[in-house]
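tl;dr need the bound structure. longer version: we got a ligand (zinc ion) that a collaborator sent over and nobodys looked at where it sits. i said id run it. heres the input, straight from their email, havent touched it
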Amino acid sequence: MSSSSQATEKGLGQIGITTARDHADLILEDYPDPDQQFRRLTLDSHAAKRHLRKLIEQDVINVTEKKADWFEYSVDERAYNAAKTARENRDPLLPCGHSGMIHLRDGRGFVCSYWNCSKIFDRQEIADWRAEQ
Ligand SMILES: [Zn+2]
């Protein structure tokens, strides 16, 4: 056996777990699953690109391979699971599964504030959906 017991535990810490929970929608919807490598260039989502550096610093996203001119990344498995659990345990307020909404002044109801969703629901729709939960 090698002296691996000397190695400090590297990787996802409590800050990373908290970040993963706070950015659950982003991690689950805007990045590929943990078993898929990706490059910054191939991310479609501007939010994903914008948060990439921070998520790497907190080990929510790992550098899995160093290529000549770019890095290959993947989402940390534990961070992914933390995000998933956070979302499952969160009471979604809207039928689309997200929880932030903005009240539309023009009487059309509420719009989901998740940037990639923006679905609009009227008050009755939300009430009916919540009654079914
Ligand atoms: Zn939504």
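gonna send this back to them w/ a short note. Confidence is low (pLDDT under 50) at residues 1-8.
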